[in-house]
Amino acid sequence: MKRSRPARLAVAATVAAGLVLAGCGDSDESRGDQADLSVLAMDAPQMQTLKKLTKEHFTDETGIKVDYTLLPENEARERMNREFATQAGTYDVASVSAYEVPIYSGNGWLAPLDPYVKADKAFDQKDVFPNLVSSLTGEDGKIYAEPFYGEGSFLMYRKDLFRRAGLTMPPNPTWEQVADLAARVDGADGASGICLRGLPGWGQNLAPINTVVNTFGGAWYDMNWNARLTSPEFKKAVGFYVDLLRSHGQPGADRMGVLEILDSFVEGKCAMMYDATSLASSIEADGSTVKGKVGYVPAPHDRTQRAGWLWTWAWGVQQASDNKDAAWKFISWASSKEYQEQVGQELGWTSAPAGNRKSLYANPEYQQAAGAWYRQEYTAATDSADPKNPGVARRPYTGIGFLGIPEFAVLGTAVSEQISAAIAGQQSVDKALDKSQDLAQAAAAKYRGG
């Protein structure tokens, strides 16, 4: 039986009160005071929606005021890294990602959430996609964050252009099939054969490139932390991606990231696009020139059967926070089925944060609103590559579209710049990877003991 909103929040409050009595709570709340919360997050439409609904659906029910600091992604990461590394306690909750959680939890910067999850049966942890739970679980087996929304990756293609060209998209395409299709559909109605991220950034071009590397059999390091960026498998993967973009990709690809290629696709300038599942709602939105004309299939693969990435923005609690019980009440609401329903009913179901809970995909209202893509979105969330073993080659790190080591933020950006220069035709792939090999070898020196 579904609980009403006040009853649902009352459960979370009871959970927190019980943990205080058990000695797990914070002193201010044990006195009966309601702590105010400081939340740090990247500025995104989903976060703006959350902020808009907080007073009515959370503060008015719990008495807990929430002070949001919303910043552009790079600025939010920089402040979060500084804040959590020093354990300053300025922010109680932050929107950590699948990249930060293993690092932060390993350093003791995040508070484990297991006592709250265990006590708060209404939160329904089993409803959260297992792949996301795995990516937000530390090496000690404890849960350190709960997903606000998640995303996988899939291939989007123009059904109308394919039909006119007499082409058929395979239900589970390989990258070689995609390259062949891109060549054959390139130029149809002035559209590029495929649009892919080329802009430098470890969260830009390296996100899709790493999935290609994984499924082509490559890895950044072997089990002894020796760099492998000049291995045949790594070279083949990066060479394939660069050649595909240079031959049949969008003009100026080296300057185009996720937002730019999304704009191009929505404007009808791309026959295919491989990117995040979360983009589908924009593609099918009113005003999109390709609404109703797009098909969705799983991420292309090569040597592996599953090749899509897995990503999430999730809520983590700073270990230094004095307001952990109030923080759980916030997380219990912001990551709940009830919050998704609140968004769906008030702003439309395609605005609801998706990719995190199974129940959303069983909801007839969401199925109707997201009919064009929800099945493939669900498949991407439940059948992505394994974050702990995403490819063929054994590796000493975790992650699909990134490496779960602190050095990757700097290393990945530097390597992405070299690959972007190859996409721009300023250097060869071999030269880009030779330089990148040296960067990667130096970045992992401490892991080799050197």
Would you kindly provide a written description of the structure presented here, covering whatever features stand out?
With 450 residues, this protein is α/β, with parallel strands linked by helices. The protein has 20 helices and 8 strands. The strands form 2 sheets. A 5-stranded mixed β-sheet has the order 2-1-3-8-4, with helices on both faces. It has a 3-stranded antiparallel β-sheet with strand order 6-5-7. It is globular, with a radius of gyration of 22 Å. The N terminus is likely disordered.
Quick structural summary:
By secondary structure, the protein is α/β, with parallel strands linked by helices. It contains 20 helices and eight strands. The model is unreliable at 1-8 and 13-33 (pLDDT under 50).
Along the chain, the helix and strand elements come as HHEHEHEHHHEEHHHHHEHEEHHHHHHH
Number of strands: 8
Quick one: overall form? globular
In what range is the share of β-strand residues? 5-15%
Classify the secondary structure makeup into a structural class.
alpha/beta
List keywords for this structure.
450 residues; alpha/beta; five-stranded mixed β-sheet; three-stranded antiparallel β-sheet; 20 helices; 45% helix; globular
Topology:
Elements: H1 5-21, H2 27-30, E1 37-42, H3 45-62, E2 66-71, H4 73-86, E3 93-97, H5 100-106, H6 114-119, H7 130-135, E4 146-151, E5 153-158, H8 159-165, H9 175-185, H10 206-215, H11 232-248, H12 258-266, E6 272-276, H13 280-283, E7 294-298, E8 311-317, H14 324-334, H15 337-347, H16 358-361, H17 364-369, H18 374-382, H19 408-423, H20 429-443
Parallel strand pairs: 1-2, 1-3
Antiparallel strand pairs: 3-8, 4-8, 5-6, 5-7
